[in-house]
Amino acid sequence: MMAPRLTGPFMRALLVFAALLGSTCTQKAPEYPVVQEQDGRVAIRLSIIDDGGVHHFTYKHDDKNINFFIRTDVTGKLQAHFDACYSCFKYKLGYVREGPQVVCIACRIGYDLVDEVWDYIGACAPISLRSKVVGEALVIERKHLEAGQKYF
């Protein structure tokens, strides 16, 4: 008995998906404004990020772009997240802002920017990145950034 032939739109979609999968697994994560480490930490001025928006940055380590973003939640607190999730990181696509949400480019799951804590839907949610406000800057320790290298 012969297996049925796959033709038409389904086959085209399958081929496009396979091409996308093959090309994204080997590519480098995109590059955003690059932040520099000083004295074991990265410091980003609050005047740049404390505006209710979403701000993407790149930290370079071992020839990799370790991407992260910073957002302001409903309480006014700045939250830092790797630009990756536990399930879709392998595609190196990250998140994009779409209106009042950040949305995973790979699987299209979105999270409301104003939420203080994001409920995790499956394994797709931006990975939290430890940070704190010190004076007039949001500070992220280098060791916390480098711990996320495996996602990029």
Uncertain residue ranges: 1-25
Can you tell me the overall shape?
Answer: globular
Please tell me how large the radius of gyration is: 18 Å
CATH architecture: 3-layer Sandwich
What is the name of the CATH topology? Rieske Iron-sulfur Protein
| Widest sheet: strand ordering | 1-9-8
What CATH first level would be assigned?
Mainly Beta
Number of structural domains: 1
Classify the helix fraction into a percent range. Answer: 10-25%
Main sheet overview: 3 strands, antiparallel
SSE sequence, one letter per element: HEHEEEEEEEEH
Count of individual beta strands: 9
CATH homologous superfamily title: Rieske [2Fe-2S] iron-sulphur domain
End-to-end separation in angstroms reads 45 Å
Strand content: 25-35%
Written description of the protein model:
The N terminus is likely disordered. This protein starts with 7 loop residues before the first helix and ends in a 5-residue tail after the last helix. Helix content is 18%, strand content 30%. A hairpin with a 2-residue loop joins strand 2 and strand 3. The chain has a single domain, classed as Rieske Iron-sulfur Protein, CATH 2.102.10.10.
Q: What are the key terms here?
A:
alpha+beta; Rieske Iron-sulfur Protein; three-stranded antiparallel β-sheet; 30% strand
Please specify the SSE layout and strand pairing.
Layout: H1 8-24, E1 41-45, H2 46-49, E2 54-61, E3 64-72, E4 78-82, E5 95-98, E6 101-104, E7 110-112, E8 132-134, E9 137-141, H3 142-147
Antiparallel strand pairs: 1-9, 2-3, 3-4, 5-6, 6-7, 8-9
